Amino acid sequence: MRAPQGIHWVSSTYSDGQGGQCVQWAAEHAAATGEFLVRDSKDPDGPHLTLTAGAFAGLVALAKTHG
Questions:
Q1: 40 Cβ partners below 8 Å, 6+ apart?
Q2: What mean pLDDT do residues 4-18 have?
Q3: Cβ distance 24 to 11 under 8 Å?
Q4: Which CB contacts under 8 angstroms, 24+ apart, belong to 7-14?
Q5: I want to staple 22 with a disulfide (CB 3.0 to 4.6 A). Which of 28, 30, 41, 46 is the partner?
Q6: Which of the two residues, 19 and 31, has the higher pLDDT score?
Q7: Nearest to 8 by CA among 37, 40, 43
């Protein structure tokens, strides 16, 4: 699924800023709609995931645990 136009994507705080393995999410979109959009920074025009708040929290917990 393609993200709506005009979405502002935020890089993970775990990103080194060098364009490596990075997850981005649409924080403003989540605040406005309750939908948590997540994508791979290496494929910005590719598909994204749409998660609930609970699923996004689980993804963050998994990333913190397994790096």
A1: 22, 23, 24, 46
A2: 76
A3: yes
A4: 7/37, 9/39, 9/41, 9/44, 11/41, 12/63, 14/63, 14/67
A5: 41
A6: 31
A7: 37
Tokens representing 58 are 């689980």
Distance between CA atoms of residues 22 and 66, nearest Å: 14
5, 45 Cβ separation under 8 angstroms:
no
Q: Residue 42: what pLDDT?
A: 86
Q: Name the band, by pLDDT with cuts 50, 70 and 90, for residue 47.
A: very high
In Å, what is the CA distance from 39 to each residue of 19, 57? 13, 15
Residue with the two structure tokens 């790096």: 67
Structure token digits, residue 52: 């609930």
